[in-house]
Each structure stands twice: as structure tokens, then as C-alpha cells.
Amino acid sequence: MSDQYDSYLTLTGVPDARFLPRPVRALLKDRDDAYSAWVDAEDKYLHLLAPDWREQATAADRAAARQAVADGGDPFELSSALGKAEQDRPRAIAIVEDLAAKVRAADSKLRDAVRREMPTIARAIGQELAKAKDAYLAAQRKADEARQTYGAVLAARSTAVNWELGVFSDFTGATQASPRDAAGMEPRDVYQVPHRPGMPEVQAIEASFEAIGVRDLYGETGEPVHQDDPMVRVRAHNSGGVMDMKRSHALYLERQGMVTVLDADAA
Predict the structure, then answer these.
(1) Average pLDDT, consecutive stretches of 10 residues, N- to C-terminus, the chain (267 residues)
(2) What angle do CA 76, 81, 83 make, to 5 degrees?
(3) Per-residue DSSP letters for 199-243?
């Protein structure tokens, strides 16, 4: 028998036990129990199986010899850790290799059974997939409805911002709407790819309102819109009236097609 030890051992990945017929589940348990026994044996004999087993045993002999000398004893009267390791290592290798062979045999038996029962297993997986699909679509419908409700309330909040800026656009009263950013556009990233619904989309929308001075989007403090930039003159498209407002607000409303900036330096 070779003095070399190869710890390589792989298991076949099989479907979850809930998809397996009862007899196949029993084979899975047998395989897993055999593998656990092999792992326990490897752990038990690790000091004999490790690549540096000889160095470990030699170091133990040296430490014991130094202690014996320090205690006034004779190191040659001590038993040798290296000698014991040389004697025990082949036995340890035989034990773990026998257990590994049992694992491989059990794994092969399990793999063959899974192959034979695959039509039944595939049917069980398909039935659970159908349930998962129904749950997924139901949750998605609720998420879509919530997103549209959020978009409608967001539109009302955006219109309220317009009123704060002196542009009295109509509140639509819509109960469902796709979310839009402060410029009335679909939120997109720097590559013009729409943000995924959920937190990425909401964060982009919040950032767009923050950029135009809306610091209390959710009505938590009552703080009005803030802009620390110069006043410019604009003409409102809905009334034709001319008014002054902050430059950033004017540019925002111009992008929405609600006003025309009359000050050339503001464009």
C-alpha cells in the first residue's frame, strides 16, 4: 500500500430530498452518512494524514526531549512520536481510504437511482415550479400595483412643487401612474438605462428632487423648496404670464415644457 494519501473525494449533486421518491431518499441518507463517517475519520487522523505529518511528529519529539532535559530526565527513555506516527500512518490511511470507497459506492448507487427515477423527480420539481410561478406572479402584480400608486402620488407631489414655484399646473387626480423624476422623465442611469423598479428607481427619483431643492419630499418637516441661485424671468406656457423664479427651477420647468426662460444668460 502506498504511503501517499489523496484526500480528493467528490459527491454527485442530486435534487433536494423533497423531490426524491422515498427509496431514493433512503439512498441519499446512506450516501450522506457514509460521507460523514469519512469526514470524521479524516478529522480524527488529521495529524497522520497531513502532508507535513513527519515534521509535526519530529517537532513533538524535539519538544518532549527538551522538556525531559529540563526536568533532568533522559530523552532516550521517551517513546518516539515520529516512530509511532510512522507505524500508525499506514493504518490511518487504510481506514479513511476504506471509508472513501464506501462513499463512492454509495454515491454511485444513488446516482443510478436518481437517473432511473428522473421522470418522477422532474414531475415533482415541475409541480413545485408551478406553485412558485403562481406566487411570483401574484407578488409581482401587487408590486406593480404599488408602483403605480406610488407614481400617482409622486405626480401629485411634483405638481405641488410646481405650485411652490409659481406655475399652477393642474392636479390630475390620477390614482395610477408610472413614476417619473423631478423633470417628468423616466428615471435612467448615466447610460440611459431605466432604473430597476424598487429601491434603485426610488433613490434616483429622490435624488432628482433633491437636486432642484426639494429637501422635504415626504412632508416630514414642512420645509419649503430651497434654491440658492439667481432669479430669472420666464413666460408660462399655460397662461402666457411673465414671472420671476429661481434659475434652477426655471430650467427644470423648461425641461417639462411648462415655461420658456427669457433671460439669455440663464439658458
Answers:
(1) 76 97 98 98 93 91 92 90 92 96 98 98 98 98 98 96 84 95 91 94 94 89 75 90 84 84 67
(2) 85
(3) HHHHHHHHHHHHHTT---TTSSS-PPP---S-EEEEEETTT--EE
pLDDT at residue 264, as a whole number:
58
Q: Which residues pair with 231 in a beta bridge?
A: 246
Distance CA 102, CA 85 (A): 25
C-alpha cell at 80: 518516539
Quote the strand ranges of 32-128, DSSP E.
Answer: none
Which pLDDT score, from 0 to 100, does residue 245 have?
84
Q: How many CB atoms lie within 10 A of CB 17?
A: 11
**How many Cα atoms occupy the beta-carbon half-sphere of 218 within 13 Å?**
6
Q: Distance between CA atoms of 84 and 235, rounded to whole angstroms? A: 97
What stretch of H or E contains 8? none
Compute CA 26 distance to the chain's CA centroid, rounded to the nearest angstrom: 33
- Nearest by Cα to 176 from 204, 153, 143, 203: 153
> DSSP string spanning 146-185?
HHHHHHHHHHHHHHHHHHHTT--PPP---S------TTSS
CA dist 249 → 7, 77, 181, 267 (Å): 70, 94, 14, 12
pLDDT value at residue 1: 45
Shortest CA distance to 179 belongs to which of 159, 161, 160, 153? 153
- 28-31 long-range contacts, Cβ below 8 Å, gap at least 24? 28/110, 30/106, 30/109, 30/110, 31/103, 31/106, 31/107, 31/109, 31/110
| Structural contact between residues 47 and 56, judged by C-beta atoms closer than 8 angstroms | yes
Of 119, 187, 105, nearest to 154 (Cα)?
Answer: 187
Give the torsion through C-alpha atoms of 170, 246, 203, 258, to 10 deg.
30
